[in-house]
Amino acid sequence: MDVDAIRGTAAGTAPVPLSVLDLVTVGNGYTANRALRTSVEISKLAERRGFHRHWVAEHHSMPGVASSAPAVILAHLAAHTSRIRLGSGGVMLPNHAPLVIAEQFGTLEAMAPGRIDLGLGRAPGTDGATAAALRRTDRLNEGAEDFPQQLAELTRFLDDDFPDGHPYARIHAVPGPVQGPPARPPIWLLGSSGFSARLAGTLGLPFAFAHHFSAANTVPALDLYRDSFRPSELLDAPYAVIGVSALAADDEREARRQTLTNALSMVRLRTGRPGLVPTPEEAESYQFSALEREFVDSWLSNVISGTADEVRAGLDGLQKRTGADELMLTANAHGPEVRVRSYELIADAYGMPPAA
User: Fold this and answer.
1) Bridge partner residues of 187 (DSSP)
2) Spatial contact of 284 and 256, defined as CB atoms under 8 Å apart
3) Average pLDDT over every residue of 299-310
4) How far is CA 52 from CA 4, 165, 208, 339, in A?
């Protein structure tokens, strides 16, 4: 497999390749249709401006996001772009049968050859009750514990190489190798702790860490990934991406107002009250309890926001501290225009290729 399918090239003056992590945010007063159209806008902008890839994250039963079906969204984005890499950040493997994922991403690879990434996580991407509804079982821990075995099965389906005598030896994931080229998409492991970091290193896979919601674990997880890395056919050296919550606006105050909307969303989610992303006015007028304010302050301390120059400086500093090989930016805010504008401003700050 071409290593360029993994390693990107930095555009402009960016220290490493920049990419997009998309939750397909749905704000109060907007619809899922508008959120999905915004994802297309962002993907086309990212392609024009030199971002390396655009990933979509699987979440369920959350009114503020519309990314429950990454494979469907990625097919839509593929139809509106021609060069940018597209992928899942990620598909939650315990929620699905490995054969289903192999066929979905084999289909995507056939539709957009050489542009698809298959990022996998082992969390449910939702609460326990919803996970039970997805998996048709309440034995949720079993799914996470079985992740290495599920991953091995998925890889066998993607490569069409179950050994003779295996129960699945005569089962073929289609589209797939049984039909000839194109090649399968590269597998990435995602995580917010050390488990996936160590597994990705041991298997010689690229690794993406969720810095945007687990910042305290970023450096230890990346160190563990690099220390445990063993070269593979896919990679001869570690390659680590980190997800970063970053929002640029035309002035600092507006950036702060917009990031507060996401913080309030997270407060509601963590307290069992998920909803649409609130407006900046609603977030500013909300009366946070002392405990909620402590959470908000902690959450915002890991968000890089402000003017384009402030965000650029924050991203540069984060990359130096972590040694990340790529930064994947998620711009979570209430309004679609705000999210699109943020990526435009960041591209401008780094002198990335101008929009056509």
Assistant:
1) 118
2) no
3) 96
4) 11, 42, 14, 18
